[in-house]
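queue> holo job accepted (pyridoxal-5'-phosphate)
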Amino acid sequence: MPDAINLGDLYAARQRIAGIVRRTPLVPAEALSPLAGTAVHYKLEILQATGAFKTRGAANKILSLPAEVRARGVTTVSTGNHGRAVAYVARAAGCRAVVCLSELVPENKKAAIRAVGGEVKVHGRSQDEAAEIAFALERDEGMTLINPFDDPTIVAGQGTAGLEIIEDLPRVYTVLVPVSGGGLIGGIAVAIKAANPWARVIGVSMDRGAAMYESQKAGKPILVEEVESLADSLGGGIFLDNKWTFGLVRDLVDDLILVTEEEIARAMAFLLDREHFVVAWGGAVGVAAILAGKVKNLGENCAVLLSGTNVDSKRLRQITAEQADWLDTLG
Ligand SMILES: *Cc1c(COP(=O)(O)O)cnc(C)c1O
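queue> job finished
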């Protein structure tokens, strides 16, 4: 691994991003704690600007660019929360953001990026083809391509959520974090392990195409077949030439847990019906793992990161209706 990311990088990130990124609350999980038999807390990144934690990393990256580089603008390839975050931060920082998407991306996702000031460029029928446009913008116009997770500046930005958890719950014993590319859990693990080496950081992914889980099992980054899943914010690989997040997860994360789509749907229904929080697919996997009894030894103080809120409200109502009988079994 290249030079390690340390606590100092996280504190520098926090100073840099203050003013664009919100400090989010950590609140007691009123309905989940009695079911879990211990004190569970939710870290509410659903209240973050743009509706997901990705604003932290994007802000740290864009604000770290030298002024003359930033002035040429930024670009990225993302259909979801990362694209939104890059567009939002670029507008706040006064530079251009071009988000490259394939023809298959639905209109509502393009609208969400435009709504926060991003320009949308459409090319090809896959993420890889859309990426060609971003590479061209980097090469021809000197724009900076913003990586969604495998960049130490992105990781340090995401890690600021971990600093806040430690400040609000100094005796935290277990931290549950959603995992896709591993930028979020990598940064959080740096913060938690520096403050509490005995605390446990546990990653949760969906069992469909869990690239980080399979790669850790294989001992190196591997390609995992992409499967259709409702939890689209957790899809995608970790890059075969992964430089940062694979090693961070290997060295600092205590365990990786997988949950099914049904378990995620239950967690979303539970969060809406019992806690009155709207949490989208990837954002709810930590609660899914607890409700499914998949986390052994939660300890006395547990923090669960609810990473994002961006979900179609019609779909959310449908899920809650489908899980009505299951919700009744909880009493
Ligand atoms: C991106 C994202 C994740 C996963 O973050 P990684 O840094 O890729 O592991 C989890 N939840 C939501 C809502 C996301 O947008």
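queue> The beta strands are 26-28, 39-44, 74-77, 97-101, 119-122, 144-145, 174-178, 200-206, 255-259, 301-306.
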